[in-house]
Amino acid sequence: xxxxxxxxxxxxxxxxxxxxxxxxxxxxxxxxxxxxxxxxxxxxxxxxxxxxxxxxxxxxxxxxxxxxxxxxxxxxxxxxxxxxxxxxxxxxxxxxxxxxxxxxxxxxxxxxxxxxxxxxxxxxxxxxxxxxxxxxxxxxx
Length: 141
Description:
- The strands form 3 sheets. Strands 1-2-3-4 form a 4-stranded mixed beta sheet, with no helix packed on it. It has a 4-stranded antiparallel beta sheet with strand order 5-11-7-8, with no helix packed on it. A 3-stranded antiparallel beta sheet has the order 6-10-9, with no helix packed on it.
- The protein has no helices and 11 strands.
- The protein has 2 domains: 21-55, no CATH class; 65-133, no CATH class.
- It has strands at residues 21-22, 36-39, 44-49, 52-55, 65-70, 77-78, 94-97, 100-101, 108-110, 116-118, 128-133.
């Protein structure tokens, strides 16, 4: 027996909607864009969109990390950072050198470790490097 809601507003505090629940192994065989489910493998709500299941951020606060380094002559690698990133994830991080925001992949990049590689032409020795990251986290406090 199925129960359907059509043009119904649920506004009492004792009601809730339960999402489909299951592990990563039992996702729908033919998913369509917009489907939501709770994944018991990851412990997160996920949504299907453009052929990919992606975690949906939990409600709460995400801790943004800030790492600070100082430029040194002939040094291009700075770290370690609080979190590790791989090549291609530069857009998830904001980097400032001497107070100037840097362009992802043009002025900084990652190579699969928790160090940021800064283009050596971006400044002289003694400038502050600020790395702000964890914007792409789905783990809310």
